[in-house]
Amino acid sequence: MWVEADEIQQLAEFRGETVEEFSARFVRRVGDRYSLIEKPGGDCIFWDMQAGCTVYPARPTQCRTWPFWPENVETPEDWENVRAVCPGSGQGRVYSLSEIQSSIAMIRK
After folding, report:
1. Contacts of 81 (CB under 8 A, 6+ apart)
2. Who contacts 36 (Cβ-Cβ below 8 Å, separation ≥6)?
3. Residue 23 contacts by C-beta under 8 Å, 6 or more apart in sequence?
4. CB-CB contact of 14 with 60 (8 Å)
5. Per-residue buried b or exposed e for 75-91, using 16+ beta carbons within 10 Å of the residue's own CB
6. 4: how many CB neighbours lie within 10 A of its CB?
7. Residue-level pLDDT at 108
8. How far is CA 70 from CA 38, 60, 79, in A?
9. Distance between CA atoms of residues 106 and 109, nearest Å
10. Model pTM greater than 0.70?
11. pLDDT in 10s for each residue of the chain, 109 residues
12. Strand order of the sheet with strand 33-36?
């Protein structure tokens, strides 16, 4: 999960840690970007099978915009692939085209 400096700060504050403490435990550098570390198998370090996202109120933009990432909504087939791997996709309320476009714009900025 890609994170920006302000998102790292928000996550640290949410957890009651300093940015330095949080970063040492949960952030890795990948080239010139930062990413949250993952559990073995690729799940987010903050995902708990019973509780769900344990940092939900402070989750990064990449999480906030899931599943409306450009590569997930380009074609109906792409969307069906998402629905096949994410049981929550395609459930709940229907999002308007402008809401989906807003999510995509957040990622592309």
Report:
1. 72
2. 1, 3, 26, 27, 28, 44, 45, 46, 60
3. 8, 12
4. no
5. eeeebeebeeeeeebee
6. 13
7. 63
8. 22, 17, 10
9. 6
10. yes
11. 899 999 999 999 999 999 999 999 999 999 999 999 999 988 899 999 899 899 999 999 988 888 888 889 899 999 999 999 887 788 888 888 888 888 777 776 5
12. 2-3, 33-36, 27-30
Contact predicate 105/68, CB 8 Å: no
Biggest CA-to-CA distance, the chain: 43
Peptide bond into 67 cis (omega under 30): yes
How much is the pLDDT for 101? 83
Contacts 24+ apart (CB under 8 A), 8-16: 8/34, 10/58, 11/55, 11/58, 11/60, 13/58, 14/55, 14/57, 14/58, 15/55, 15/58
